[in-house]
Write a structure and sequence with these properties.
Pfam families: LRR_1, LRR_8, LRRNT_2. This is Leucine-rich repeat-containing N-terminal plant-type domain-containing protein. Its main location: membrane. By secondary structure, the protein is an alpha/beta fold. It has 3 domains: about 240 residues, Leucine-rich repeat, LRR (right-handed beta-alpha superhelix) (Alpha-Beta Horseshoe); about 120 residues, Ribonuclease Inhibitor (Leucine-rich repeat, LRR (right-handed beta-alpha superhelix), Alpha-Beta Horseshoe); about 130 residues, no CATH class. Helix content is about 10%, strand content about 20%. The chain contains 6 helices and 36 strands. The strands form 9 sheets. A 12-stranded mixed β-sheet has the order 1-2-4-6-8-10-12-14-16-18-20-22, with no helix packed on it. A 5-stranded mixed β-sheet has the order 23-24-25-27-29, with no helix packed on it. It is elongated.
């Protein structure tokens, strides 16, 4: 076939394809006419001449734009609407369209979709798949829609600028996919049933207007992500269940409207917010905010009435003890329970968790036992100079014990047991401090004396010690995230540890067989599961890598040997603590001495 003939065939195929495409468009437009009956439309007139319709040319007759906004139309859209493959704009807002929204999938030229204020009843799965040119999706106030979840296929619409789906019965969490929308400026998802927290990826877009207020059940968690959303101009988060403090918004230099009312926010109103020069409207009503009454500039319309608990009704600082206790609460993220019970400018007037001296002037006891508080121990406790009893046990506190607390001369009891504290223990008078249940906490190592080995405190390696410090994340990876609260105690030497309620672990650099047994026992015959070796749920030991010698010990990958013997392996362990049969052979374990003799005989042979 010659070049001219090939070219001719190609042109014919192209024209044939265009003819088929034009026929598809004609079929869709004919169905649209039958269903909606827009004023001025007639089958006697070419559809490219109909009011609100634009085509690419009178020859190809490919529909590129449909604009039927506010035409008092009713009826259903044709199911084959996505056959209009050259469509760039679809504007149907302000009508009474009903029925299923037809799929818009794979309309790769579509840039804008306006479907607001209609009566659509459902959205098909994958409706927004393949909209690679989409910039605006606006479909708010379709109140008859069946519950639907956030369409994650929109990640293919990387040019998205506006996303508006308020009052559309959207439910579930807001997926963490907003890094896919670097140009996104407007997010309007108000009046739905969204739950969960604000996605961290909000900060990776260019959101200016964030309207996500009035969720039926309420979004929750903190609003800390706003700190990094520096393009914000308008934020509506009111009528949700957000907790925590108002973050530092000093980098949001264009923010003029901040609506946070009717949440459960706690803590102080930041000075950086009160000094933000761009602010015009701030609503903080009906939260549980504390501290001094906020003072904004004269040009700012601000409301903060309702359930907030500012220390005074007028501006000015709080009482010194109140200021100190609020600083202590701040180190723990301003727990809601404290905000609910600390509600005036006198800590000795029936504040919860607080006991004062007989004169009702000075705080002598702070008791936060078993409150599930997170955060750290604030150095501000040192400002409560009359403090005698400080109980912080059974929480989730982390970090070190502040050195400043050693200046509390009246302190007789300081109980921090069963937390996640770490670091060196400051020197308190004997009998004052209780630190049990904090496996990563340590005392200062004693200096070496004479020819003896240096004394190594649990969890530490003495200076110059050739042994390597163990990787706690690797050894107790089942805990995850650097959270070592399931590591119950360290043993000597420092590399040997007990990992939670599982069998004792021995690392390769821990050559000794003498272990301090775990203080929790099991009934006889019950075998413990080695979580550190288990990569998935299933039968105990499913992922154990290989047995080592002696046979009571097995090798768990690179984590080292794990004792699994009976009462004789090691000899000081309680019998109920160990499995009593070899996992590989099913035979009872030999006493440690007999097995060592067997090994020696094998080596000699």
């Amino acid at each position: 076939m010659g070049p001219l003939k090939t070219l001719f065939v190609g042109l014919c195929l192209l024209l044939l394809s265009a003819a088929f495409a034009s026929a598809d468009d004609a079929a869709v437009m004919s169905k649209l006419l039958d269903n909606l009956k827009p004023k001025g439309w007639s089958s006697a007139t070419p559809y490219c001449q109909w009011d609100g319709i634009k085509c690419d040319s009178a020859t190809t007759m490919r529909v590129t734009s449909i604009n039927l906004a506010s035409k008092s139309l009713s009826g259903a859209l044709p199911s084959n609407l996505n056959s209009l493959t050259q469509l760039t704009s679809l504007s149907l807002q302000g009508n009474s369209l009903r029925g299923d929204l037809p799929s818009l999938a794979n309309l790769s030229s579509l840039q804008s979709v306006f479907l607001d204020f209609n009566n659509f009843t459902s959205i098909p799965p994958g409706c927004f798949q393949g909209l690679t040119s989409l910039q605006t999706l606006s479909m708010g106030n379709n109140v008859d829609l069946a519950p639907w979840v956030f369409p994650t296929e929109l990640t293919q619409s990387s040019s998205l600028v506006t996303l508006a789906a308020g009052n559309t019965n959207l439910y579930g969490s807001v997926p963490d996919i907003f890094a896919s929308f670097p140009n996104l400026q407007d997010v309007r998802l108000s009046y739905n049933n969204l739950t969960g927290s604000l996605p961290k990826s909000f900060s990776e877009s260019s959101i200016q207007n964030l309207w996500i207020n009035n969720q039926a059940t309420g979004l929750s968690g903190t609003i800390e992500v706003l700190t990094t959303m520096t393009q914000l101009t308008q934020v509506w988060l009111h009528k949700n269940q957000f907790t925590g403090s108002i973050p530092d918004l000093s980098k949001c230099t264009n923010l003029f409207d901040l609506q946070l009312h009717d949440n459960s926010l706690t803590g102080l109103v930041p000075a950086t917010l009160m000094s933000l020069s761009s602010l015009q409207n701030v609503s903080l009503d009906n939260n549980q905010l504390q501290g001094p009454l906020p003072v904004f500039g004269s040009n700012v319309m601000v409301t903060f009435d309702g359930t907030n608990s500012f220390c005074k009704n007028t501006s000015g600082p709080c009482d010194l003890q109140v200021t100190t206790l609020l600083e202590i609460a701040g180190a723990m993220g301003y727990p809601v329970s404290l905000a609910q019970s600390w509600q005036d400018n006198n800590a000795c007037s029936s504040w919860g968790f607080i006991v004062c001296d007989p004169s009702a002037k000075f705080v002598v006891t702070v008791n936060f036992d078993n409150q599930h508080f997170n955060g750290t121990i604030s150095p501000a406790y040192a400002n409560l100079i009359s403090l005698k009893t400080l109980i912080l046990k059974n929480n989730n506190l982390t970090g070190p014990i502040p050195e400043s607390l050693t200046t509390l001369s009246h302190l007789t009891l300081f109980d921090v047991s069963n937390n996640n504290l770490f670091g060196d223990i400051p020197k308190f008078p004997s009998g004052v401090l209780i630190t049990t249940g904090n496996p990563l906490i340590r005392t200062t190592p004693s200096p070496p004396s004479g020819g003896s080995s240096p004394s190594v405190s649990p969890g530490m390696i003495a200076a110059g010690d050739p042994r390597k410090k163990i990787d706690l994340d690797a050894i107790c990876s089942d805990v995850g995230g650097g959270d070592y609260k399931n590591i119950r105690s360290f043993v000597e030497p420092a590399e040997c540890l007990i990992c939670g309620l599982i069998v004792q672990h021995r690392t390769p650099s821990c050559p000794y067989r003498k272990f301090v047994p775990h203080n929790v026992s099991l009934p006889p015959g019950i075998q413990r599961v080695c979580k550190c070796c288990r990569k998935r749920d299933g039968h105990p030991g499913e992922d154990w890598k290989a047995y080592a010698t002696p046979k009571k010990c097995f090798d768990c990958g690179s984590l080292g040997e794990h004792w699994t013997g009976d009462a004789d392996c090691p000899t000081k362990a309680p019998k109920q603590y160990w499995a009593n049969k070899d996992q590989e052979t099913g035979r009872p374990f030999l006493p440690l001495e007999e097995e060592e003799e067997e090994e020696e005989e094998e080596e000699e042979a």
